[in-house]
Amino acid sequence: MKKIVLITGATAGFGEACAHKFAANGDDLIINGRRTDRLEKLSVVLKNKYQANILLLPFDVRDEKEVAAAINSLEGNWSKIDVLVNNAGLALGRDYFDEANLEDWNTMIDTNVKGFLYVAKAVSQLMVNRKQGHIINMSSVAGKEVYEKGNVYCATKFAVDALSKSMRIDLLRHGIKVTSINPGAADTEFSLVRFKGDENTANKIYDGLKPLSAADVADVIYYCTTLPAHVCINDLTLTCVQQANAIYFNRQQDK
Ligand SMILES: NC(=O)c1ccc[n+]([C@@H]2O[C@H](COP(=O)([O-])OP(=O)(O)OC[C@H]3O[C@@H](n4cnc5c(N)ncnc54)[C@H](OP(=O)(O)O)[C@@H]3O)[C@@H](O)[C@H]2O)c1
């Protein structure tokens, strides 16, 4: 059956790939991100390719009032969100704890923890009213183990991990599913953002690896939403075959 799916961070990477995957399967999408030009372009592509119904909902997840106003502005069927892909997020910098930049830390905490919560809170309220819904939280292998120079990024994803567990318990009585997705290294704009546009450093992250693609992650997320009503994948970690966890890689020169 057709679903209403709200995807945050749909202007790139996992969010954009999820938009394609859900639209290709006939769902109606509410797409979010800050770059409205990208949302507009994506909407045209999705409409032409899949005849999808698309609603643009640009906002900055860090702005508590903007998030609440945007979610509360949804009318009619658009307010009946079946699936939230709570995905918007970023890493900024990869520095030793003592050398890291406080501004980077604030932005990661404001986006990955506070913004994540503003969206989850506003959307879960709509789901509670209908006693149904599925929240997919984007965590990471960085939310399972810390790695050198991962400090605050890892901490924000540990927070997502803890909050997914808490939400699953607190929303249990309303029948709302909560799934935490924990990908390993994936080829998106993530590293370019992390290293502030330094392509050489960003590309080195994938040296000797065939990393996950955004489409790989979107396929897994979509799968989680196709299970029978009484079944929920609570926590799912996926990596490419050359990655064991947040720290161990088997890099090969021909990849
Ligand atoms: N790629 C990886 O290796 C990897 C692995 C594990 C987990 N993750 C997590 O997966 C999620 C998506 O990352 P990605 O790899 O797809 O990176 P990406 O290609 O850089 O996409 C990030 C998305 O988040 C949005 N975003 C960032 N800050 C935002 C804000 N303040 N308000 C609204 N949207 C915001 C961006 O949109 P705008 O810039 O247009 O706002 C963009 O659409 C993140 O939570 C990341 O931590 C990534």
Describe this structure in a few short sentences.
42% of the residues lie in helices and 14% in strands. The chain has 255 residues and is an alpha/beta fold.
What features would you highlight for this structure?
Rossmann fold, binds NADP nicotinamide-adenine-dinucleotide phosphate, seven-stranded parallel sheet, single chain, 255 residues, 8 helices
What's the name of the CATH homologous superfamily?
Answer: NAD(P)-binding Rossmann-like Domain
Mean pLDDT metric: 98
How many helical stretches?
8
Within the largest sheet, what's the order of strands? 3-2-1-4-5-6-9
The level-1 CATH class: Alpha Beta
Radius of gyration, rounded? 18 Å
Encode the helix/strand succession as letters: EHEHEHEHEHEEHHEHE
Would you kindly provide a written description of the structure presented here, covering whatever features stand out?
- The chain is of the alpha/beta class.
- The protein has one domain (4-238): NAD(P)-binding Rossmann-like Domain (Rossmann fold, 3-Layer(aba) Sandwich).
- It is built from 8 helices and 9 strands.
- The strands form 2 sheets. The protein has a 7-stranded parallel beta sheet with strand order 3-2-1-4-5-6-9, sandwiched between helices. A two-stranded parallel ribbon has the order 7-8.
- It binds NADP nicotinamide-adenine-dinucleotide phosphate (NAP).
- NADP nicotinamide-adenine-dinucleotide phosphate binds next to helix 1, helix 4 and helix 6.
- NADP nicotinamide-adenine-dinucleotide phosphate is lined by residues 8-15, 33-35, 38, 60-62, 87-90, 111, 115, 138, 140, 183, 185-186, 188-190, 193.
